[in-house]
What we know:
By secondary structure, this protein is of the alpha/beta class. 46% of the residues lie in helices and 12% in strands. It has 10 helices and 5 strands; from the N terminus they run ααβααβαβαβαβααα. It has a 5-stranded parallel beta sheet with strand order 2-3-4-1-5, covered by helices on one side. Strand 3, helix 6 and strand 4 (149-155) form a beta-alpha-beta unit. It is globular and about 55 Å long.
Amino acid sequence: MATQSLYRRYRPRRFTELKGQEHVVRALRNSVANDRGGQAYLFSGPRGTGKTSAARILAKVLNCANPNEGEPCCECDSCLAIERGASFDVLELDAASNNGVDNIRELIERASMGNPGRHRVFILDEVHMLSAGAEAALLKTLEEPPPHVVFVLATTDPQKVSETIRSRTQHLQFHMLPMHDLDEHVRCVIKDSNLKVSEAAIAQVLTQGGGSARDTLSALELVAAG
């Protein structure tokens, strides 16, 4: 059986576990806790900074049976199904490889259907790669989304997302992680995983990671394996 990668094993399950994005965490937790959540978000920032993880956490808390101060319980059936990727309440689409009008029309058809939980959350990764026709089709739904639907659009290049779509979303910007936060995170992972890694190797891992949590843990995995 293949061993789960460090990045997947230590993927944030709650907003408070999302490293280096306190401004995003504060905005999302407050909006959910005060029942002021939006129906369309745009998460932008460099790769590996937590955009998709934050979208999944948002999906969990919106459908959680026992949310607490804007955080999911991570124990109810809904939370566990979303973590397994087996929930009917969450649909993820990679716009880099599903960027045509038909792909978006199929998504829109699903948006109009009922679902088991309180919200159906659609996560569109690399949304800037949608074709012009697909963007136009998506825009129609963003203008008048069904009340139970929440869209989370993620991108590494927000300037390539049309202004009309950006204007229909709440835009939250993710940043590269500070070196201090990454260093602390790497050392916690090393301790929890019982890895033997030298101080020189840790410094190398942090340099290779370049501020990306995902790339840093991938570099750690290679160093530990070597």
